Structure formats: structure tokens, C-alpha cells
């Protein structure tokens, strides 16, 4: 299992980078609506550019480094997963479909019964 590290609090540099990234992302979104006379692909490009610039700013903060370490640890853990073979997958899928079908029929009959009881108790036909 991957080792979990407890990190220190954020520095002023990290807080500044996060604030700038939020402002840049917000600027990209505002530009999308501000320049509504431009073609849609250009406006989408503004949002994507704002997102990329914000991601780049976050990348250089402590949070970006921690995220990269998390992604590497998740990749390592993913390699440890034992995936089922095709036969097990097909059997499990069949069991799920059968169970869902049985439950659908059960709830359909339950709905009919409750509707019949409601009509009986209210005197409607």
C-alpha cells in the first residue's frame, strides 16, 4: 500500500499561486461571456486557455506536487489490481441481469398491488 505523508501548511507562495489560478480561471470564464460576439470556438479556446494557465499555476504550488505524488501512487496501486478474466466477467454480468429482471418484475407486481389497494380504499375505479 502507498505511504501517506502528512504535509505542512501552505506557504504564502502557495496561497498566492492558488489565488492567481482562481483569478485566471475566472478570467477565462468571464471572457467566454464578455466576448459573446466572437465565434464559439474562440470563446471555448479562452476558457481552455484559462484552465490550462490555472492548472500551470497550481502545478508549481505544494498542492500540485502533492497531486503528482498522489497520481504516481494511484498508478502504482492500479498495477496491483487483479482484474477478472472474461469468463468471470460474463458470469457476473449474467447474474446481474437476472437479478435486475427479477427485481423489475417484483416491483411491477408490487406497484400493481398497491395501485389496486389504493383504488379499493378510495373507492375509485
Strand content: under 5%
- Shape annotation: extended
Major beta sheet summary: none
Fraction of residues in H or I helices:
over 70%
Q: How many structural domains does the protein architecture include?
A: 2
Multimeric state of these chains? single chain
Order of helices and strands: HHHH
Helical region count? 4
Descriptive overview:
The chain has two domains: 71 residues; 43 residues. Helix 1 runs antiparallel to helix 2. With 125 residues, it is mostly helical. The mean pLDDT is 90.
Task: Give a quick precis of the structure.
This protein is mostly helical and 125 residues long.
Task: Give a topology summary.
Blueprint lengths: L11 H23 L5 H20 L2 H18 L6 H37 L3
List keywords for this structure.
extended, mainly alpha, 125 residues, 0% strand
Amino acid at each position: 500500500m502507498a505511504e501517506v505523508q502528512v504535509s505542512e501548511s501552505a506557504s504564502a507562495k502557495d496561497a498566492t499561486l492558488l489565488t492567481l489560478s482562481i483569478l485566471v480561471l475566472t478570467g477565462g470564464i468571464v471572457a467566454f461571456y464578455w466576448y459573446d460576439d466572437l465565434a464559439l470556438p474562440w470563446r471555448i479556446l479562452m476558457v481552455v486557455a484559462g484552465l490550462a494557465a490555472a492548472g500551470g499555476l497550481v502545478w508549481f504550488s505544494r498542492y500540485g506536487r502533492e497531486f503528482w505524488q498522489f497520481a504516481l501512487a494511484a498508478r502504482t496501486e492500479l498495477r496491483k489490481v487483479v482484474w477478472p478474466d472474461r469468463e468471470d466477467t460474463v458470469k457476473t454480468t449474467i447474474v446481474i441481469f437476472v437479478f435486475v429482471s427479477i427485481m423489475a418484475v417484483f416491483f411491477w407486481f408490487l406497484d400493481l398491488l398497491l395501485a389496486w389497494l389504493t383504488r379499493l380504499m378510495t373507492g375509485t375505479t
